[in-house]
Design goal:
Elements (H helix, E strand, L loop, with lengths): L64 H21 L9 E6 L5 H12 L3 E6 L11 H8 L5 E6 L4 H8 L4 E6 L5 H15 L6 H4 L3 H8 L3 E5 L6 H10 L5 E5 L8 H9 L3 E5 L4 H6 L2 E4 L10 H7 L7 H5 L6 E3 L20 H20 L1
Parallel strand pairs: 1-2, 1-3, 3-4, 5-6, 5-8, 6-7, 8-9
The structure holds N-carbamoyl-L-aspartate (NCD).
The site of N-carbamoyl-L-aspartate has 10 residues, from helix 2 and helix 8.
């Protein structure tokens, strides 16, 4: 596939980075609490869209917007299922191989829990317990695993590894993060959270994503600000590409050395969105932001600790930062955080990162239902 890069609208602020607290300290505004939405998708909903059955998910761009709406809507049904009855047996007899060659808490556990809540089983594989330790190639490992299971979930430190593994298999592979490449299931759960939070919460996404059109309408005109390590963070790569197809404004805020890669910007800029790049998280950016998506500086991708130390504290979100944001704005983070969001922010109702984490299981249940159902 070829992507045509439209000219970047860059807006670098030349002043040095500021850390954490800002001078303007106002009382944190109260979060706008919207009424509970009861109009969620019916439980045990029959999934009619079979276009994802048997498909791998390596990169977010492979999904159509209609498929994305279906995944979000199905995620809403899964949230309702878990809330009302905990689990079902829709994937009884199916087996997922969870292959993680990099550390993970949320992605690994939520995929495993998702499979189990749908009545399926899981085989867990890691680098030291598998023949990778003996020098087996990734292609051979996944070729072996697909003879035992129905779907492989893979996390790998190398960008491109998921595509390589999927090409070696005939059963579906779900990319759970390939180095600095992509993290498509995270982008889907991030979009689920954005739409849910912006439309009232508590599963309102099921209605907002009822169709491609309603999903586009829910996102229209929203400003999403991504902050931190945009160069190495695979979550923001997939999320920027995903949001880029909607009528949103993307603000990329990072130190110069950690800018969003040009090819991601080009894809994000291709469709409906507009974007600007910044070196500082200013008050005016905070005021116009609907979603502040904060990321960890990816220490494991740096060549030296000295290089990491130079940028690790570039942006720290504190209650003073939140004080500059609107009452209906939200703060998200894929987690884990290592200091970039002060825990003092956690009690602010606009802090959506723990709700975002919980949504991961619903969205992964949806993916498994649609791919294996
Ligand atoms: C992210 C990842 O692994 O890319 N975590 C996650 O999957 N929730 C983000 C990170 O590690 O910083």
């Amino acid at each position: 596939m070829q992507f045509v890069a439209s000219p970047l609208r860059q807006q670098f602020v030349a002043t040095p980075l500021r850390r954490g607290g800002y001078e303007v300290a106002t009382t944190p505004p109260k979060c706008e609490v919207k009424p509970e939405v009861t109009n969620v998708a019916p439980k045990n909903q029959k999934i009619s869209d079979d276009s994802l059955r048997g498909s791998s998910l390596v990169a977010i761009s492979a999904l159509t917007t209609a498929q994305i709406a279906t995944i979000l809507k199905t995620g809403g049904a899964m949230q309702e299922l878990v809330t009302t009855q905990g689990a079902d047996e829709s994937l009884k007899g199916k087996i997922l191989a969870s292959v993680f060659y990099e550390p993970s808490t949320r992605t690994n556990c939520s995929f495993q829990a998702a499979m189990m809540r749908l009545g399926g089983n899981v085989i867990a594989v890691n680098e030291s317990s598998s023949s990778v330790a003996k020098g087996e190639t990734l292609s051979d490992t996944v070729r072996c695993l697909e003879t035992y299971c129905d779907v492989v979930v893979l996390r790998h430190p190398r960008s491109g590894a998921a595509a390589e593994a999927a090409a070696a298999m005939s059963k579906p592979l779900l990319n759970a993060g390939d180095g600095v490449g992509e993290h498509p299931s995270q982008a889907l759960l991030d979009l689920y959270t954005i739409v849910d939070e912006l439309t009232g919460g508590r599963g309102s996404v099921a209605v907002a994503a009822a169709s491609e059109e309603s999903l586009a309408a829910a996102l229209k005109g929203k400003v999403v600000t991504m902050v931190g390590d945009l160069k190495n963070g695979r979550t923001v790569h997939s999320l920027a590409k995903l949001l880029g197809r909607f009528d949103v404004t993307l603000l990329f805020v990072s130190p110069m050395s950690l800018r969003m890669p040009a090819e991601v910007v080009a894809i994000a800029a291709r469709d409906g969105s507009s974007h600007t790049e910044h070196e500082m998280l200013t008050e005016s950016i905070l005021k116009e932001t609907d979603i502040l998506y904060v990321t960890r500086v990816q220490k494991e991708r740096f060549e030296s600790v000295e290089e990491y130390d130079k940028v690790k504290d570039a942006f720290i979100i504190t209650p003073d930062t939140l004080a500059m944001m609107r009452p209906d704005a939200r703060v998200m983070h894929p987690l884990p955080r290592v200091g970039e969001i002060d825990p003092a922010c956690d009690s602010d109702p606009r802090a959506a990162y723990f709700r975002q984490m919980a949504n991961g299981m619903y969205v992964r249940m949806a993916l498994l239902r649609l791919v294996l159902g």
